[in-house]
Amino acid sequence: MSKPGRRLSVLVVDDHPVVRAGLQSMIDAQPDMETVAEAATGEEAVELFRRHQPTVTLMDLRMPGMGGVEAIAAIHRSSPDACILVLTTYDGDEDIHRALQAGARAYVLKDMPRSELIDTVRAVHAGAHRLSPAVAAHLAEREHQSELTSREIEVVERIAGGMSNKQVAADLGIGEATVKTHVNNIMGKLGATDRTQAVTIALRRGFIRL
Q1: Tell me, what's the pLDDT at 16?
Q2: Model confidence, pTM
Q3: Which neighbouring-strand residues pair with 38?
Q4: Cβ(190)–Cβ(198) under 8 Å?
Q5: CB contact at 8 A, 70 and 103
Q6: Contact 81, 49 (CB under 8 A)
Q7: Which residues, 6 or more positions from 100, have their beta carbon under 8 angstroms from its beta carbon?
Q8: Is the N or C terminus of the chain more exposed, i.e. has fewer CB atoms within 10 Å?
Q9: Which CATH fold topology does 150-205 show?
Q10: Where in the chain is the domain with CATH 3.40.50.2300?
């Protein structure tokens, strides 16, 4: 953690160079902040966090290899007090839930005003937990929606990849009748009328990603 009179050290994690450059410029323009490192992957984020011990980490969610949620969890295993702020374009309730469960202290969207993001960084460092209004609304809705089991997620991932029930059954080593039961359960939980809609909803809510 930073000491009084010292600037907040910030680790920026995002797989887009332009986004990283913009965040670094914004952070370094603040009198009480400085960017100490940038990472393009979750693996780099974990290593650079270990090396620099930043006071705040800005973490994207979807990156090649290790994603943001996995990186947050890995960082928290060794540094439980880490201040991690998720900054993403994804507002699916499952994305939000997983990130907060992994240890993120804030979850905000990239379309938020620059001044609000800077205020959020300072607030998170001070011990606050912050959610963008849209994020908070999605999280509240989640309480009234059914979660998919790990097996159901495996099934819908394969449906999203274009597999038939028979192919899913062969890939997972289960019976085709069992796959049909899973598909029916998935559609019921997601409120979908067909397989395509189930995949669309699963993607939007963050259960799966392409």
Answers
A1: 94
A2: 0.71
A3: 12
A4: yes
A5: no
A6: no
A7: 107, 139
A8: C
A9: Arc Repressor Mutant, subunit A (1.10.10)
A10: 8-142
Residues 6 or more apart from 115 whose CB is under 8 A from it?
Answer: none
Residues of the chain within CATH 1.10.10.10 domain(s) are 150-205
- The predicted pLDDT at position 144 comes to 60
CB-based contacts of 194, cutoff 8 Å, min separation 6? 187
- At 29 the pLDDT is 96
Q: Specify the pLDDT at position 3.
A: 41
Q: Are 12 and 38 contacting, i.e. CB atoms less than 8 angstroms apart?
A: yes
| Structure tokens belonging to residue 145 | 């929606």
Exposure string (b/e) for 158-197, b if CB count within 10 Å is 16 or more?
bbbeebebeebbeebebeeeebeebbebbbebbebeebee
Cα 52 to Cα 4, 37, 47, 208, distances in angstroms: 18, 8, 9, 32
Give me 172's structure tokens: 């997972």
- Domain 8-142, second-level architecture: 3-Layer(aba) Sandwich (3.40)
Using DSSP's 3-state secondary structure scheme, residue 58 falls into strand
Q: What residue type is 134 in one-letter code?
A: A
- The stretches in the chain having pLDDT less than 70 are 1-5, 142-145
Sequence-ordered alpha helix ranges (H) in the chain: 17-28, 42-52, 68-78, 93-102, 114-125, 133-142, 150-160, 165-172, 176-190, 195-205
